[in-house]
Amino acid sequence: MNGPVVCRLPRTHRIEVATSDARLAEIAPAWAALWQRAGGLVFQHPDWISAWWRTTPYQDRRGLRIGLVWSDERLVAVIALATFRRSGIRVLEWAAKDHCDYGDVLLAPDCDLQILRQLWQRILDDGGFDLVYLNRLLPDARFPALLGPAAPGGGTILQPNHRSEVSYRVAGAWQGGAQWFESQSKKARQNYRRGRKFMEEGGALRFRLMEAHEAREPVLERVAALKRLWLAKHGRVSDLFDEGSAALAALVSALAGLGLLRIFVLERENEIIAISINFEQHGTMMAFVTTYDPAFERASPGMVLMMDYIQWSLDRGLTTVDFLCGGEDFKRRFATHSVILSSVMGGRSLRGRLAVLADRARHATKSWRSEKTSKQAEPAEE
Questions:
Q1: Beta carbons of 152 and 6 less than 8 angstroms apart
Q2: CB 334 within 8 A of CB 306
């Protein structure tokens, strides 16, 4: 019988798992340098993770697990994870999971994937969690390379999970925003013009990008207040917009510090009607938070603002507008492409493995009931 092949780290490499605030601050410069070399998204930048960690509620139920591989003094791999205790189970998930639309690892271009597997095994060996659940994986994510049988020692076997999400994008060969606008349906163009006309009845309407020197605090307070209204109306919650929370400001400051922040507003006589907090990376405009004043709902201010910033982006040579996670109708209406984001799950302890089995059973039961209901709804053959 063939035994497993064990690959050792090169002598110049060492593995570390950072768990403290102090160490998170110490490794930030090396981490930022790796992020730059690897072409990572902002969700994997140390400033983003640090902003989340400083402001996240229930820190007594959380713990950092930042996996690192060093080559001498150079950082070559990072897996930014954290634990969270819910319903008596300790779950290992992406750090800043609730504010990361795309999760993945950071890997230097010249780094061997085998090193990443050994880093993962070290995280498993250190333990401190029962269950692993990692979601929002893009089709080209590096992390799925860790799927499959565990390394020697009985680590977690990660398997694809049934949960998935969708990301909608606008991408095409338009020669600027005007051409994109004319490619929309007649109804969409009419709705845009009607919305603007309705809002202009009370004063001059203006779409603009906020300048870097403008004070962001009043705008962010407006965003949070409007989002709280929307969340209450739809029976949802998000600690990002809780009154008195510093989370939104911290994340936006991280975007601004990296030079990625783009805040678009729709104003009437200096009154903000709609806001979209976006960021620009890799030739793509990404929409992080969008909201609008419900007093103007009849005019669809969110739709008007979206069409304005899509045109703005295309006029400046960006190739894609990414609405990030979420299958909302307003995103699907304008999207030309969609991407399915996958997830993986695995149990480390007995409790974790039982939780995985229970999750699969619930999903199988739900699927069976849904299929049964669908068949019962089919018309009988004559």
A1: yes
A2: yes
92 φ, ψ (degrees, to nearest 5): -95, 125
Question: Please, which pLDDT band fits residue 77 given cuts at 50, 70 and 90?
Answer: very high
Confidence (pLDDT) at 378: 63
Alpha helices in the chain (DSSP H): 21-38, 46-55, 113-126, 177-183, 186-200, 217-233, 247-257, 301-315, 329-334, 350-377
Place of tokens 């085998």: 114
Beta bridge partners of 272: 267
pTM of structure: 0.91
Say how far apart CA 42 and CA 324 lie, in whole Å: 13
- pLDDT score, position 175: 94
CA distance 107 to 75: 9
Range 274-280, long-range pairs (CB < 8 A, 24+ positions): 274/301, 274/302, 274/304, 274/305, 275/219, 275/222, 275/223, 275/226, 275/305, 276/305, 276/306, 276/309, 277/223, 277/252, 278/309, 279/42, 279/255, 280/313, 280/318
Rounded to whole angstroms, the Cα distance separating 336 from 322 reads 10
In one letter, which amino acid is 159? Q
Amino acid in the structure at residue 48: W
Say whether 216 sits in a helix, a strand or coil.
coil
Band (pLDDT 50/70/90 cuts) for residue 372 is confident
Count of residues in the chain: 382
Residues 169, 335: contact at Cβ < 8 Å?
yes
CA distances from 59 to 53, 86, 90, 275, 278 (A): 8, 13, 13, 30, 28
Q: Say what percent of the chain tops pLDDT 70.
A: 92
Task: Tell me the pLDDT band of 382, cut-offs 50, 70 and 90.
Answer: very low
Long-range contacts of 196-204 (CB under 8 A, 24+ apart): 196/299, 196/304, 198/296, 198/298, 198/299, 199/266, 199/268, 199/273, 199/296, 199/299, 199/301, 199/304, 200/268, 202/268, 202/269, 203/268, 203/269, 203/271, 204/268, 204/269
Render pLDDT for 14-37 as a digit per residue (tens, 0 to 9): 999 999 999 999 999 999 999 999
d(CA 249, CA 372): 47
